[in-house]
């Protein structure tokens, strides 16, 4: 009897949390398809289903431009991060040399450093190169190693045995071939996680685009676009929510396709190596 | 062989070493240097000694407000988030059926982009007609003014943070599932109650992950910017991040955080020297938390070794 009561209680709590978590998403969706005059009335269920709202926002704001910019940013960020983080993480995990420990401490320090600490000189560097107003300041640093991704990949590399790599070395493989042919295929889950995290990070990033792109409206990403969208359509909450849905939807779809890689990746960030 | 490997290691690390120098060490030095200058980007930086810091600590009308707000987020938002995530993770471990389904539901909101989520929350927490206050009204509670009331804007942001704590829930869930079953069985044999075994078995086992969560959460709170800025400007109905007629961090400076103030000084008023002094303040605070994390034997040392 007690066990049954316990079962009911935990499920009730779980359902309560789940409901609280899912409700906002439902209200966002419902508001997005309301007629203009209904948003901001106490009536929460759409009087008529205005699916056209989702198309309207593409006409009233350069949403497709922002979408394209965001995709370019997210894809470049993902490629650059993976290309640079793999060799760095590999060197830090596999070569026990004087210096790799210090290097790893630097990675941790950079990972924990608030970006605002460096933002002024970074902005000045990019301004002196004439690159502010483009996405290069956002992605070039990733080509030279993103600390969080390096950290994550290193933690993962420590969990896979080195025997295969040693066997390949005895067969006469060079270090680069060992990495590309032997180690890289074993890193797939971690690569998927880092790739997804980077893609999401770039998609959601507000601070970077705000600093470097805010004066160039045709370079805007969805994040700054959406923030400005609200002020332009200040009374049209239905359209604002429609735009919000369009910004959120690709991520949620991507999540359902890659859920396993995601959850594994998140777990990897917290659990000791 | 060893020499060859050493050269390979160095080659693998070269791009990163360039990155560290150009994008970390150099700008870090520059931040400190610029914090002793007056610099508007129009002329050369002009050395002014400690004047920025003097102004910062004695005259800046908003610094205290910004520090208080950032401190509030560190002291209230982070513990709230960790406790909530721990509770939710604990519930997930207890579920006999549907655990995967609930895990997905708990995780889903954390995918919402911060700007989108914040705008949505300002709408949902609309004082007059928002569903949240309607629901409260149903129970006879008069809902607060949320993002338009200086006393309720930050608690509103805490709720937003709880909604997005999916990552933390998954991390703590993994830690909870890692606790060896035998420990619970032994505790049960000794007649430990549920709370006792939580205190003496669960907590010690997950404490490294918990410490990691708390410290990274606090460092996240020091950087807290996007949600504060978007909530403030959307709720006040302004296009600009800081309309000149109002105090920064609407309503009434209640969402003004240190990074927010740095942004206003550096990128709206072009006081690059003064913004750098604010960056040094942020650096010192975050360094203190990092040192705590790195020095605790049970914490990061274990995570990183």
Automatic annotation (TrEMBL), chain A:
It is a multi-pass membrane protein. It comes from the Bacteria. CDD domains: TM_PBP2. The chain crosses the membrane at residues 12-34, 71-92, 104-129, 135-157, 178-203, 237-258. One of its GO terms (cellular component) is plasma membrane. Residues 67-258 form the ABC transmembrane type-1 domain. Pfam families: BPD_transp_1 (PF00528). Its main location: membrane. One of its GO terms (biological process) is transmembrane transport. Gene3D superfamilies: MetI-like. It is found in: Cell membrane. Keywords: Cell membrane, Membrane, Transmembrane, Transmembrane helix, Transport. PANTHER family: ABC TRANSPORTER PERMEASE PROTEIN MG189-RELATED (PTHR43744:SF12), ABC TRANSPORTER PERMEASE PROTEIN MG189-RELATED-RELATED (PTHR43744). Belongs to the binding-protein-dependent transport system permease family. This is Carbohydrate ABC transporter permease. It comes from Kribbella antibiotica.
From TrEMBL, chain B:
The keyword Transmembrane applies. It is a multi-pass membrane protein. Residues 67-293 form the ABC transmembrane type-1 domain. GO terms for cellular component: plasma membrane. It comes from the Bacteria. InterPro entries: ABC_transporter_permease, MalF_N, MetI-like, MetI-like_sf. It is found in: Cell membrane. The chain crosses the membrane at residues 7-26, 72-93, 105-125, 156-177, 206-226, 272-294. GO terms for biological process: transmembrane transport. Keywords: Cell membrane, Membrane, Transmembrane, Transmembrane helix, Transport. Belongs to the binding-protein-dependent transport system permease family. This is Sugar ABC transporter permease.
């Amino acid at each position: 009897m007690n066990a049954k009561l316990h079962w009911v209680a935990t499920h009730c709590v779980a359902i309560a949390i789940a409901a609280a978590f899912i409700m906002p998403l439902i209200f966002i969706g419902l508001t997005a398809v309301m007629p203009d005059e209904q948003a901001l009335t106490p009536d929460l269920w759409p009087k008529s289903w205005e699916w056209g709202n989702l198309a309207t926002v593409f006409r009233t704001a350069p949403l497709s431009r922002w979408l394209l910019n965001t995709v370019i940013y997210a894809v470049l960020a993902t490629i650059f991060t993976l290309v640079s983080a793999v060799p760095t993480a590999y060197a830090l995990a596999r070569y026990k040399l004087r210096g790799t420990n210090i290097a790893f401490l630097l990675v941790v320090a950079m990972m924990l450093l608030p970006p605002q600490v460096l933002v002024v000189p970074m902005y000045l560097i990019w301004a002196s190169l004439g690159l502010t107003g483009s996405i290069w300041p956002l992605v070039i640093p990733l080509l030279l190693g993103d600390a969080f991704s390096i950290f994550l990949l290193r933690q993962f590399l420590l969990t896979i045995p080195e025997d295969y790599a040693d066997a390949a070395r005895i067969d006469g493989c060079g270090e680069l071939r060992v990495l590309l042919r032997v180690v890289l295929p074993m890193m797939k889950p971690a690569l998927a996680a880092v790739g997804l995290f980077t893609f999401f990070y770039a998609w959601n990033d507000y601070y970077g685009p705000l600093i470097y792109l805010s004066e160039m409206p045709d370079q805007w990403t969805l994040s700054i676009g959406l923030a400005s969208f609200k002020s332009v359509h200040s009374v049209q909450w239905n359209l604002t929510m429609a735009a919000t849905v369009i910004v959120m939807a690709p991520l949620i779809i991507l999540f359902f396709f890659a859920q396993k890689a995601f959850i594994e990746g998140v777990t990897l960030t917290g659990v000791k190596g | 062989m060893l020499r060859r490997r050493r050269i390979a290691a160095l080659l693998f690390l070269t791009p990163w070493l360039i990155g560290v120098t150009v994008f970390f060490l150099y700008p870090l030095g520059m931040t400190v240097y610029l914090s002793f200058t007056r610099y508007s980007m129009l002329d050369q930086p002009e050395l002014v000694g400690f004047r920025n810091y003097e102004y910062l600590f004695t005259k800046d009308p908003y610094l205290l407000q910004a520090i208080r707000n950032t401190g509030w987020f560190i002291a209230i938002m982070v513990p709230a988030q960790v406790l909530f995530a721990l509770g939710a993770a604990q519930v997930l471990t207890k579920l006999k059926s549907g655990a995967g389904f609930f895990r997905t539901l708990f995780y889903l909101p954390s995918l919402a982009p911060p700007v989108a989520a914040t705008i949505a929350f300002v709408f949902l927490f609309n004082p007059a007609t928002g569903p949240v206050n309607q629901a409260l009204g149903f129970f006879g509670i008069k809902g607060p003014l949320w993002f338009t009331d200086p006393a309720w804007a930050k608690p509103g942001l805490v709720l937003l943070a709880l909604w997005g704590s999916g990552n933390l829930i998954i991390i703590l869930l993994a830690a909870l599932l890692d606790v060896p079953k035998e420990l619970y069985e032994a505790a049960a044999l000794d007649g430990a109650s549920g709370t006792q075994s939580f205190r003496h078995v669960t907590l010690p086992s997950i404490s490294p992950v918990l410490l990691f969560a708390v410290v990274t959460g606090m460092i996240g709170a020091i950087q807290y910017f996007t949600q504060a800025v978007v909530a403030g400007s959307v709720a006040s109905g302004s296009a600009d991040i800081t309309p000149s007629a109002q105090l920064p961090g609407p309503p009434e400076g209640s969402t003004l955080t240190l990074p927010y103030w740095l942004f206003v000084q550096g990128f709206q008023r072009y006081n690059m020297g003064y913004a750098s002094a604010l960056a040094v303040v942020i650096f010192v605070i975050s360094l203190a938390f990092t040192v705590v994390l790195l020095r605790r034997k049970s914490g990061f040392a274990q995570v990183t070794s």
